[in-house]
């Protein structure tokens, strides 16, 4: 038996943020800038902040800036590479860096090196087709100011300097090509989330752990009734608020469905889990000081593009290779085995079935991944690191990702969407974020979009405050080389990225 009580009306917050991850932390910081008089409360179902997708070992991204991720630069039938998405993502990441720099300037405690460090970003391909694509990709990107420092090589000797671990033992006759950017970074989004939530807590934001939001109900006065359950005592509390943001990672879809907003109808989710091979060997780490992306297997989702990353987490360096896809019906690592079946509703059944029919290649890929033996996974690693030995690597389980399934407005059929989707409903009084990559790296851009869509009547008044924190807000850096140079110099100095 659980008890339930309502808090006094005077204690009801202006804003409720569901989930204590990078998205809620970012929105809480932005609200401190534009509306510091608003009361903000965060409810997190776990026992710690950043325990799910924002956790550093949960595949939360390592500073996605489209410097090396090949799936952001698709090639057309004629071989020409379209840089549009890469430019967009890099612009978004530059916004994040400017905002983090502002927070450090403003007094967010801790050294920037706790959450961001410089790491070169490289792309690596093999074979004649891969080399032709890489050459065209470099030509397309290097013409953009954001990517003007991108280097290209087909030389084994040059690549042995860039990637000694990956080139050792490789066939000297193999056709290879690579690009390198020294502007890349490694980001620990778990540490960044903790720093931001600690910061806003000192400014009046209330962060409650072990508090699961069970339901969201719209009341007649326009406010939202939020029912929260203590996961330890079982006690239930209801609060009322003017605005709710559901930033609960994979848990966002079920909560938005419970809110019963029209905008969520037709949306579904397909959970994909992942695993990585990890090495803490100091010798291997010393020989791979980079983040390197390859090309995805046919039928593989973009989130499964193989990559070998140098990571710095809580003061310890390690290498991470993967991901190896798996399947679980859970929407969160700490979720329920019933998450997927319970998310199927009459309004999204058509979308779900449509994707099941059209994404046979993805289904085949996932089945193959789940059935892979350890030796087969090791052979995949050896495609990147020919001299890799099993004893140097252990398997770690990453976080859950819920790929967005939505209805195509032109065909009415269900489509699987790789990326993030901001859902805004009820005249801007509720919003939620669905999807995965590039996710955390573009959190600031996503939350700025939320402010614009949910508070259109206030955004003009807020704009000067936002531009003070983010100088390029509203001004694409790729179109303004002078502003780009100034922003890069400022953020590199403040975030201690000069060496």
UniProtKB/TrEMBL annotation:
UniProt-recorded Gene Ontology molecular function terms: (S)-2-hydroxyglutarate dehydrogenase activity; L-malate dehydrogenase (quinone) activity
Keyword Calcium recorded: no
Highest taxon, organism lineage: Bacteria
Gene3D superfamilies xref list: D-Amino Acid Oxidase, subunit A, domain 2, FAD/NAD(P)-binding domain
Known cofactor(s): FAD
Alphabetical keyword list: FAD, Flavoprotein, Oxidoreductase, Tricarboxylic acid cycle
Broad EC category: oxidoreductase
Pathway of action: Carbohydrate metabolism; tricarboxylic acid cycle; oxaloacetate from (S)-malate (quinone route): step 1/1
GO BP annotations, alphabetical order: tricarboxylic acid cycle
InterPro entries: FAD/NAD-bd_sf (IPR036188), MQO (IPR006231)
E.C. code: 1.1.5.4
One Pfam family it belongs to: Mqo
Reaction(s) this enzyme catalyzes, per UniProt: (S)-malate + a quinone = a quinol + oxaloacetate
NCBIfam families: mal_quin_oxido, PRK05257.2-1, PRK05257.3-2, PRK13339.1
PANTHER family xref list: L-2-HYDROXYGLUTARATE DEHYDROGENASE, MITOCHONDRIAL
Family: Belongs to the MQO family.
Name by which UniProt lists this protein: Probable malate:quinone oxidoreductase
Organism for this UniProt entry: Blastococcus saxobsidens (strain DD2)
